[in-house]
């Protein structure tokens, strides 16, 4: 079925947003007639026409979930860019701003009329702004089962060199595998102070309870707060958070950190976002004062949208750590890439990989050379939105370190099944 020119729907939606009462010329049916035709479709109307009328009616009645269902089914029949724009409107009404933005970008890439282009760009800006301004708080709780192949970060080989002599590690020092319950909670509040300035606060709690090795149970609490400034209609943003992190191991204290981590982002195009970050942190270890350190970091990332449904994000990061003992002072350089996007049947895929090179200043007392590591982190996650605002996800993580010191060469794999609920 062909819809030769349905871009009139976008200015109609804009008039609704502005609260205007306006008649539209031509053969464009009103939203009321869309409801009439959805309620009593003609006998010869095909499924596309019925779905379109039902979607328009649901939008008029602010039944955004029903509209999402109708337009999603319609796109499965015919990938018309107008249907993409209508689906974006439905997501916008349902406050799913990232998904709304994706659909508007796909519609924009179809080279619509100039008036429709202007409105689509307006909707994209609305989605960007509303993502942080629609409500001043957001929370998520997750619970699931996790498996870890090396909870104690044991070495890959029992044969190591200590004080220049060969040494065989005991079995207790080798990798231990376990499974257990993983729970997490996060909350964000973004309180508006004026048109450009808001105050953002974040809190997160993450806990892992193992079935066998309780002495490796972990918990981490993080808090940060700071001003968030948006300029140029949200095109440029500054965030200046000051925060703390506390980590426990086996029910006892392990480490504590305080940090200042300014971030700056600028949207250089409708599909491109540059993010620059810096960090100053003070790290303290309860049982290892020689590792207490000050760390300075710089980061740069570029987020690019592909086809509206996929995002690719390469990144670079540099961290210099100055510890109480020079043997634990290091310079780390990281390069990574992350890809995420939508799959059929409402699935979403995220894949990421990063490589870090870390060089330490001096050897430890037992080592004959300063430590040099190459660390590779790879992850894969598949998630699906369920009814009632729930999300199910299956994730896999592979961590590998190759070091000139055999004690630090490790391999670790984690598998996790998680159920999340957003508020």
TrEMBL record:
Q: Which Pfam families match?
A: SlipAM (PF04575)
SUPFAM superfamilies, alphabetized: TPR-like
Q: What PROSITE patterns does the record point to?
A: TPR
Q: Which residue range or ranges hold the Surface lipoprotein assembly modifier C-terminal domain?
A: 137-423
User: What is this protein's record name?
Assistant: Tetratricopeptide repeat protein
Name its species.
Answer: mine drainage metagenome
């Amino acid at each position: 079925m062909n819809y030769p020119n349905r871009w009139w729907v976008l200015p109609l939606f804009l008039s609704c947003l502005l609260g205007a009462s306006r008649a539209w010329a031509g053969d464009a049916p009103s939203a009321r007639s869309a409801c009439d035709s959805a309620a009593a479709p003609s006998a010869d109307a095909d499924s596309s026409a019925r779905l379109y009328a039902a979607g328009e009616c649901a939008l008029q009645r602010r039944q955004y979930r029903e509209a999402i269902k109708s337009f999603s089914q319609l796109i499965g029949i015919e990938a018309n860019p107008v249907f993409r724009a209508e689906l974006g409107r439905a997501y916008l009404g349902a406050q799913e701003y990232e998904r709304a933005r994706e659909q508007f970008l796909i519609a924009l890439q179809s080279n619509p009329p100039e008036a429709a282009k202007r409105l689509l760009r307006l909707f994209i800006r609305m989605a960007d702004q509303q993502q942080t301004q629609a409500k001043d708080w957001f929370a998520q709780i997750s619970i699931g089962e996790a498996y870890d192949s090396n909870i104690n970060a044991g070495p890959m080989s029992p044969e190591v060199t200590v004080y220049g002599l060969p040494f065989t590690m005991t079995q207790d020092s080798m990798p231990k595998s376990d499974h257990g319950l993983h729970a997490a909670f996060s909350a964000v509040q973004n309180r508006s102070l004026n048109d450009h300035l808001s105050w953002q606060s974040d809190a997160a709690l993450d806990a892992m309870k193992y079935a066998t090795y309780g002495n490796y149970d972990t918990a981490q609490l993080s808090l940060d707060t700071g001003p968030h400034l948006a300029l140029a209609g949200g095109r440029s943003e500054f965030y200046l958070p000051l925060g703390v992190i506390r980590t426990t191991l086996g029910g006892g204290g392990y480490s504590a950190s305080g940090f200042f981590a300014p971030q700056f982002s600028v949207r250089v195009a409708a599909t491109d976002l540059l993010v620059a970050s810096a960090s100053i942190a003070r790290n303290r270890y309860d049982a290892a004062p020689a590792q207490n350190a000050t760390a300075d970091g710089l980061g740069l990332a570029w987020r690019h949208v592909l086809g509206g449904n996929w995002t690719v994000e390469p990144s670079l990061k540099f961290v210099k750590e100055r510890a109480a003992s020079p043997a634990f002072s290091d310079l780390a350089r990281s390069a990574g890439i992350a890809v995420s996007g939508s799959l059929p049947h409402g699935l979403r895929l995220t894949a990421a990989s990063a490589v870090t090179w870390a060089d330490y200043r001096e050897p430890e007392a037992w080592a004959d050379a300063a430590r040099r590591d190459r660390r590779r982190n790879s992850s894969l996650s598949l998630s699906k939105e369920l009814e009632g605002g729930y999300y199910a996800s299956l994730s896999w993580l592979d961590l590998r370190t190759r070091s000139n010191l055999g004690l630090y060469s490790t391999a670790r794999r984690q598998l996790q099944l998680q159920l999340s609920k957003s508020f």
